[in-house]
Amino acid sequence: xKGHAKSSFHGAHRKILMLTNVExxxxxxxxxxxxxxxxxxxxxxxxxxxxxxxxxxxxxxTQTVQRRIPHARPIVLHNIKGSSMTAGVKQHLVRxxxxxxxxxxxDSFTTPLGGFLGSVRALNDTIPIxxxxxxxxxxxxxxxxxxxxxxxxxxxxxxxxxxxxxxxACYHRGCRFVSLSPNSxxxxxxxxxxxxxxxxxxxxxxxxxxxxxxxxxxxxxxxxWTNGHRRRVAGCLEERxxxxxxxxxxxxxxxxxxxxxxxxxxxxDFPVACPSYIRPCGPIxxxxxxxxxxxxxxxxxxxGGPTVYVNLGSLFRFLDEEAVALAHGLKIVLDTARxxxxxxxxxxxxxxxKRCQTQDNCPASKQNNCPASQVLDDYIRAGHVRIVxxxxxxxxxxxxxxxxxCSVHHGGxxxxxxxxxxxxxxxxxxQWMDCYDYAEMAKTxxxxxxxxxxxxxxxxxxxxxxxxxxxxxxxxxxxxxxxxKGLARLCEERGPGAVNAARILLSECCGK
Length: 512
Hints:
It comes from Ophiocordyceps sinensis. This protein is α/β, with parallel strands linked by helices and about 500 residues long. The protein is built from 22 helices and 15 strands. The longest helix has 20 residues. The radius of gyration is 23 Å and the shape is globular. The N terminus is likely disordered.
């Protein structure tokens, strides 16, 4: 692939290279779209370049498709040589002495924002999210990706919109590429009129807080361009013949004919006017098997009553005091639910709880070892609460079981989109970056609430319980459920996001 002029097919089939970080928060949209591509065109030659960790997922996708379409081509995996984003961020935090909790979350992200200075501290620690490598490491990654691009010689490259090494390689090669983003439309076109990252401000931003929001927005932009780490990395890349490119370049130096496919649509996002190159596809969610096929025991338990599903994402690790506060909030809800008039079934809780590595693990077989489990001991013994550190079934399978009354999550893009697609109400406990956006979107759309408004990103039991009860019961709960189901129907009518994305990508291969 030597430049834009290349557009012919290799024989009778199209060839696409998917290029992404390995972390599920970003990779899920690529996995979902890969399956949709193979199902839409079994003859497509699909290559997937990433770091170690997705081998089994990609093999399962190939097997799933080939069970129905035996002649579908298998996905070809290419390993990028170097450290993953998570490893890079962790190394950066350690190297620069930035306090953090495992696996790679700066303490500033989990400290109550507390106004301008709290937001500034968190913004300062976001640089490694976008640029998690030193100059030589990033240059080697770019070189490895360029080698893969030359080997594959694809008709089209689909690159993660947050993958700095991939974007740098695509711009450097001058190839024909499209970006795929798991995030919101608002994140694709940041403007100071919307809540700035880590501001914790509501939407719409109150008039008296607009100056604060503007200051944070200007600070964020200035921080990026003046940051010493960014300038050192850019200088090192220039010495190797590369120009640093990041997600910000997609808006300020948009390639001709470029498209950014976003895992959202206007009806489930902030009201944003998007440039023509941004294509909302709808929630891009990985298809998963029914819960009964994956874990019959869990499926039977879920059928025992409406369930609150608590999962704060793959990166979050609980401190004991955080888990205990959440447990007390859940206990208030469970106690109150017992007294609700007309209640036929006992409310249940399924909680995926991962504790910080400095504390003992809390496997399902030893729930009573966890302080949080002691708070909920009566309900655990009665079989109404399960606290586990690992669940065999995918979150999407659980949400689509038909038994989840509310999804308590951290505001991650995938968690939000999976719940939206399943028609499940949200209680959001936003933790960092655009998680606050998804909390505001849930409130604005009428499909959920924020459970920690007073002390975000931490929480307290009374506030969490109050917001969860309002999501579950009474007129507000009924309205929330109806609105959530209505948006799920709308998304279904407009077609799965992965299918819509695959259709655009195949069209791009034809040069349309």
